[in-house]
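Record SIS domain-containing protein, 347 aa.
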Amino acid sequence: MHEPNPGRNMAAEIAAQPDVFADLLATRDTIAEVAARIEQRRPRFALLAARGSSDHAALYAKYLIEVLLQLPAGLVSPSTTTLYGAEPDLTDVLLLSVSQSGGSPDLVEVTESGRRRGALTVAVTNTADSPLNSAAELSVDVRAGQERAVAATKTYGATLLALYLLIDAVRGGSGASAANLPELARTTLDESARAVSEAANRYRFAERLVTTGRGYSSASAAEAALKLAETSYLSARAYSGADLLHGPVAAIDADTAVLALCSDGRGGDAMRDVLEAVHQRGADVCAIGSAAAQVRASHRVPVPACAEEVAPVLEILPVQRLALELALTRGVDPDNPRGLHKVTRTR
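=>
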């Protein structure tokens, strides 16, 4: 049975993000209270547990922790706990468990186990009464509201912003770099609309697509590949710009579309040589971000400039819109992708 207005939920949830960001920023003091508890414990390093889109948000947080807090950070493999029963000593470790629903059994088990083994556990979710929140010592509510589309959009953007506000507060920051994100998000959605529609028409028949970015934008590249795969059934692979040059570039040719995340800053600067190499392979490059005009590309989607560490909050917006429009041009309802459910339970 076909829905009368395919993609309407996803479209509405993408459009809602400026207001979601404004609401979340208004609760910064509450997030700062959690940050103060973390700072008091002075963790020696951080671990992040997540799945799916939340795993990409965790990758973003990994960069924030390593750059802004100067702490080593790593992504947890939940199966080492759930399948293999590993019990490392986590004394003085910060364990951030990131999940939109807070309902995945493996993340709950990892959090419970980590807390028993000495970690300071913090749940970052969109569901304040979730099992994950109950398992963790502290929690941060991303306040995105109910999300009806299967593909995460507003919950992903809100999770990025919540993680930034949390980690920035741990270092004693005021959240100043994020203060104008609601306004910039509206500008991004408005000013990128035409270029996104053109990109959707450009790639509607694409069979292979590679997404890439460096630094903070590595998370956006990973999320872009997931969004395109789950909504358009497009074969999409994500690589950091550095990893792309370490082998996979050999598989790129004139039949490959490349979606490149390029925002102002060191990560965007590092993408110039990457995209020069990709251009020489004949690929069709779509550059998205505030530095899109500064790199080799066949098509560009503009994003307003902001501090590099919060750029992923903005640059993911046209990516989500592209996933929506590309799905519709390919005859797919992105609100109901085949074989997927809103909450995925894994162990």
